[in-house]
Amino acid sequence: MFPDSTPALQRSPRRLRPALWLSVVGAAAVTGLIAGLVFGRPAETVPFPYMHGALSAPATSAPGRAGPVLAEVVFRLIGSRGQQTFTLAQLQALPAVQYRATQPQLKRSFVYTGVPLRDLARLAGLSGQNLRVLADDQFGATIQAADYDRFPLMLAYLADGRPITAAQKGPLEVVFPNEQERTRFQNFGSQWVWFATALEAAP
Q1: What architecture does CATH give domain 50-62+71-201?
Q2: How many CB atoms lie within 10 A of CB 162?
Q3: Cβ-proximal residues to 135 (8 Å cutoff; 6+ apart), any chain
Q4: pLDDT digits (tens, 9 = 90+) for 88-100
Q5: What is the domain partition of the chain in residue ranges?
Q6: Are strands 196-201 and 73-79 parallel, antiparallel or unpaired?
Q7: What residues pair up with 82 in beta bridges, in sequence order?
Q8: Which of 113, 97, 119, 117 is nearest to 164 (CA)?
Q9: How far apart are CA 7 and CA 61, in angstroms?
Q10: Cβ count within 10 A of residue 134
Q11: What pLDDT, in 10s, does the model give residues 139-149?
Q12: How many beta carbons lie within 10 A of that of residue 149, not counting itself?
């Protein structure tokens, strides 16, 4: 299992009285529900082992013909907030996770780095919905909300700290934590979408 990034709670040597204990639990439940409504995610969201939070990202466009050359758009989010485009640098500026996984077609293990699909779904306004990830050849695979909400499935852009080459199924690839969750994700090879270019709501 993945480590819980939530700091351990300090235990008080005194036991809470039943009435007080119930009020504390009730308040926590209400707080979690409000957080879910405000941030568009389930109250029971599992913490992910993030490498870093959001970083400053370059702009998506430049004014006028005399401006700097625009970076290439490599990925699109299509959801309730319209279509959003991302360059590789902009994807790398989003909060990132990292873990080792075995690429099922290559039968090779890499330490992948990328953006959790849960965060991309939130940006697209698709939290809690099944997702469809598309490749540049129009191949698509459906990713279940129950999987990306609970586990740090990612859109990976690095393998072993380097850009993912075409031979390694890059530059962008959907990665499942199949070394940490072997039983759950051992037969998900067809959902490792490589040459990924877009994410939208599943039909």
Answers
A1: Alpha-Beta Complex (3.90)
A2: 11
A3: 193, 194, 195, 196, 197
A4: 999 999 999 999 9
A5: 17-46, 50-62+71-201
A6: parallel
A7: 79
A8: 113
A9: 39
A10: 18
A11: 999 999 999 99
A12: 19
